[in-house]
Sequence to fold (407 residues):
Amino acid sequence: MKDSQRQQTYKILLEDDTFFRWLLCPDREIDSYWQQIMQDNPETKQAADELRQIIQHLGVRETHLSEDDKRELWTRIETDYRRKRSRKRRHTFLRYAAAFGLLIAAGITVWYYSSGSSTDYRSIASDINLPGDRQAHVTVIRPNAEKIEIEASGAELRYDAEGRLSAGPKTVETAASADTASLLSAVAPEDGPDCLIVPYGKTTRLVLSDGTLIWVNSGSKLIYSSVFSGNKREIYVEGEVYLEVMPGKAPFIVKTDKLDILVHGTSFNVSAYKDDETQSVALATGSVTVATGRGKKLETLRKNQLFSFAGKTGVFEVSEVDVLDHISWKYGFISYKNERLGEVIKKLERYYNVRILFEKEAVDETTVSGKLDLKENISETFRSISRTAPVVFEAKDERTYEIKINP
Fold:
């Protein structure tokens, strides 16, 4: 095969996402499809075999490359061919592998290397319950059995480079329960993780030791190191957070019980409440790579894209969105467009720490659009919804309300 033909075949294969799926995680249907192509096109088979060797050598596991990755990769390949045409094919393949490695190994290979964790985040999160008390405080539990409580909603918690923690006003320091302290310390006695608990009805802002900013929504738990060390920065989220990740030498990884998110210097929202059917990642700036099922499915997101993952079915979807609708809570309001009323009610229950009774079938059939100022009291919020939707709210007691749909 001539160099020009080989270049063209490489380009066609690299632009076909099913080619990577066939190499890395084929099913019966896709294997049959590509085997037929190989049988009918010997030259394509030769190029595919050569690319397979390169990809296996690099340890690449990504089944999809973004358009930017493809363009950068192909630019390097074309430059290499123009400069080294006269060299032997073997040398060309090695340089191709090096170009491929510069692009992929720094991202995808590091992603898999870093995503493995010895910390049992799920056990820690499941053993620390969110308080049901309306007056509950934002709380940090540290592995040295120290418990720090912050009364004010929206207060800032800040770690310095040495892991020292400063908090907002009205801070109370007490001893954590023996069970909780031993649980955290048992993970890594010398530098075990801290656990942040933000109860229903409260929010807070967290500054990590590397300068990363995290806005934490009501009803959330975060587990993280007071000082990051080694070759990765890693946190675990149950609930909802908005992050502005500080660039650094070590990759930054956000974990939930269903997703791993590799961050590329980015601001984005993660919603991973335990009682929600779907977990999501909404990208505001930069890019992130999201994996499900320990890397079985990978997607790299662009600005204003939403990754939604249904945990029960394992189905995910990437869609174009107005990202403000997904991060507006950070600014103190809820923005929603043609959203099921039941989903809006769930957000209000968490934010105001109340219980709202309703007939599920009727509420699920009702969609609403609008904007709610969360700084208003809940009665005014209900009135705002009633202006745009056929609903009536009734107070049962101080913390319980009922919603009815008008016929």
About this structure: The radius of gyration is 25 Å. Residues 96-115, 179-190 have pLDDT under 50 and may be disordered.
